[in-house]
Specification:
This is SprA family protein. The chain contains 5 helices and 2 strands. It has 164 residues and is mostly helical. It folds into 2 domains: 2-39; 52-157, no CATH class. It has a two-stranded antiparallel sheet.
Length: 164
Amino acid sequence: MEITDNYLNISSIYQELSLKKSQLSNIDKKENEKSTFEKNDLVTLGEKNYDENDYQRVLNKFKNKDNEVRTHEQTHASGATTTSAINYNYQVGPDGKLYAMGGSVRFDTSIPENSQSAKVKLEQLKKASSSVSSLSGADASIAQTANLNKMLLESLKQGFTYEN
């Protein structure tokens, strides 16, 4: 009798285990059917997963940097002749919009043969590259090169010769 009772107990335990495995298998199957987007990127509008103050602070940093970069590059472009449109480097902000995080403008650096025109153009390049409040390395390099070329033109005008 004892053997029969043990057999029934073990049998019922295995039956329950089998039922639980089946239930877990169904749950796993449903999880696998969900797309990666649903699993990882589900947005619940009723719950806040972020601090609103942090979100605004980060968003304001993106907006301020965008404004600073655009003003910087437009100041350069307005000071001298350019060879192309302003080129911006963008980054996606927390609101999903693109914000300028850097930029560049290509100046026309060709030197006219007329020494007076060349002097005027070099002065424009110098002013355009150094007209912003915070100079980048490229800005300083262009201003320095324009200034050196202007000095070279002036010395040539005064009759100095440079031989190698």
